[in-house]
Amino acid sequence: MLDETRVISRLVDDLRTLSLAEAGALTLHREPTDIGQLVADSVGSFRPQADGAGVALVTAIDAALPQLEVDPVRLREVLSNLLSNALRYTPSGGNVRVGASRLDGHVRVSVHDTGPGIAADALPHVFDRFYKSEESRGAGLGLAIAKSLVVAHGGEIEAVSEAGQGTDMRFTLPVTR
Predict the structure, then answer these.
(1) Which of 8, 72, 96, 167 is the most exposed place for a label (fewest CB within 10 A)?
(2) CATH for 83
(3) Domain count of the chain?
(4) How, if at all, do strands 31-34 and 156-161 pair?
(5) What percent of the chain has pLDDT over 90?
(6) Can you give the residue range of the structural domain that contains 136?
């Protein structure tokens, strides 16, 4: 009973976050944030899960990334959704690579997995609320929430994938002065 209550509570929280973000009413608590450290910490929290699944979790974080004015709690939520999906779909013996780099006035964060990839007909819909492909597990909210949170920060998110070739989820955030 407790597990079902947690699942329902999480679903309600997810729906609330998504609704607020889509309505432009989500309050972001921005603060100067070391984005490289935030990415490293997020990856670190998934190491036990990756190790248990037999998946190598590799990082490539540029050393001289600028601090960003972001809501670190909300960005951890974005990374958590992306990492959770990558680990869920990557088979034992595969790897998940997480990168962060500066790119033309932005910081780009990417999560690449060696899972089965996303079918071409499903790819345009992965960020849609409640969208689930046949292979999908979950409520179909995680990527919609990730997109809403990235957009709320003034960024963009995209999925690049080919069936059988893995998936690259990447988002960019503007560097503000």
Answers:
(1) 8
(2) 3.30.565.10
(3) 1
(4) unpaired
(5) 59
(6) 2-174
